Amino acid sequence: MRLSIKYKLLFIFLLANALAYVATYSVWYLNFNRGFLEYVSRIEERQVPALIKGLEQFYSVNGSWEAIRKDNNIFLGLISSSIESSADPDLIEARTRRIKRPIPNRIDQINDWYYSSEYSPARPYLQLLDPDKKLIRRTPHTSGEPSPEAATLNPILVEGKTVGFLAVTSRQQLSEQADLLFKEQQQNKFFYIAVGLGLLTALLAFPAASFLTRPVRQMVKGARALTSGDYSSRIPVSGSDELAQLSEDFNTLATTLQQNQSARQKWIADISHELRTPLAVLRGELEAVQDGIRPLNAETLDSLHQEVVHLNTLVNDLHELSLSDIGALIYKKDNIDLSEILEVSLGKHAKLVSADLRVSLTIGSSQDDQSLPMVGDPDRLQQLFDNLLQNSLRYTNQGGELQVTAREDGHHILVEWMDSDPGVSDNDLEHLFDRLYRVELSRNRAKGGSGLGLAICQNIVNAHGGTIAAGHSPLGGLRLTITFPRTMEPQA
Asked: pLDDT tens, 464-491?
């Protein structure tokens, strides 16, 4: 049988309560026995001074213990006198009321009840000894010679001379029925209190366990909804504990999954649209040739070739972007000179660029050879700058300008890529790195690319630990700011 968290918490509460009860009872039991025995012993000791005084007076009058040796009633009479002078009537009354026995009202009745009743108050075990510590008389329930370890010898002094000893034997355990009954009553009360606290704990623990596990139940319900594909599921967040934080994280996860689902659906729709467009053009061109509407000449073949190239570029970009997303795009990083890569990239396209753009490159370096050393993959960085150059060629008016600046900036290398008109709106700047996003109006020319170039550029920059951001160019067009860390790997 599988227990839910609620019942597990309830069991833990009850177990903790039981352990606390056992520990408390154990401590109470040990301390109660010792403390109550000490309390009874102190009551017994209250009678001793009065009895010693009575014995001293008896010896002063009689000059010896012979009368007590011959008649035990004399010794008991002295004890009765000490009881009469030292006994606490309230204590006797309280003990007697607890056991429902009549209260004695005469000294002889006190003496008889004190030593014969099992419900009597605390009574010491007494022995009268001579100066040589030989036994003269003892009270009932006392036997044997006094042991130095078990008895306290109280000297009986007459005119400064020790004439005898009163041996008081301390009890090692409770023996009077009244004391034992009192102890049993306290144990029973403690047991009933423990049972009551256990029931109270159960009554409080069950709703507490339900309250504590409510966020978990809500989370289970939400997780099942996510599993079934309902990414709009959310769970309420209350409090500021770990469960509340977990609920917030769950809602964040659900939001992310919902956004990813929407992005995936939009991504599939955009890819379908992008692939359908060149395919539709190719189909139209071929059907026109088949129907004889268009002649199959060099111009027609050139148009068909351009659409195939466009389609091939789109497929290649999609493939490369998917490899980058899954981490399968290989980067071979080494210590390189970024300024050299920039010069090679711009020089490779010099003839093509010069016809449409005026390009200038500015390098700012503290090195004597004007190098910008960093760690990177030269092929991927070459691809990055080729894509940026193609982007400027496609979306900048003929006869425009492109300014490229690369310089050291503390522990980073800063590359600024600025072209001229047309510009980009603030709304478009936020989506430039979205896949298949194209800027409308003037920058979306007929020879536009796949809409994946800047997304690929962003992945390459991120793979090098850098950042890329878009803004407005002072030349009127687009400004791309790229930052690379200057970390160097040790030479082999």
From this structure: 899 999 999 998 889 999 999 987 554 4
For residue range 145-160, list pLDDT tens digits in order: 545 456 788 899 988 8
Task: For the chain, give every domain's residue range.
Answer: 46-175, 242-325, 334-485
Tally of CB atoms within 10 A around 336: 18
Q: Which two tokens stand for residue 350?
A: 């010099």
- Residue 78 burial (CB count, 10 A): 22
In sequence order, the β-bridge partners of residue 468 are: 482
CATH fold for domain 242-325: Helix Hairpins (1.10.287)
Element at 136 (helix H, strand E): strand 135-138
- Integer Cα distance of 213 and 224 in angstroms: 17
CATH code for the part of the protein at 334-485: 3.30.565.10
244-252: long-range contacts, CB 8 A cutoff, minimum separation 24:
244/215, 246/215, 246/219, 247/215, 247/218, 247/219, 250/219, 250/222, 250/223
pTM of the model: 0.46
Whether residue 458 contacts residue 466, with contact meaning beta carbons closer than 8 Å, is answered with no
CA-CA distance, 450 to 458, in Å (whole number)? 15
- Structural tokens at position 393: 């060629």
Burial (Cβ within 10 Å: 0-12, 13-18, ≥19) of residue 143 = exposed
Q: Which residue has the tokens 């139940």?
A: 217
Rounded to whole angstroms, the Cα distance separating 1 from 69 reads 80
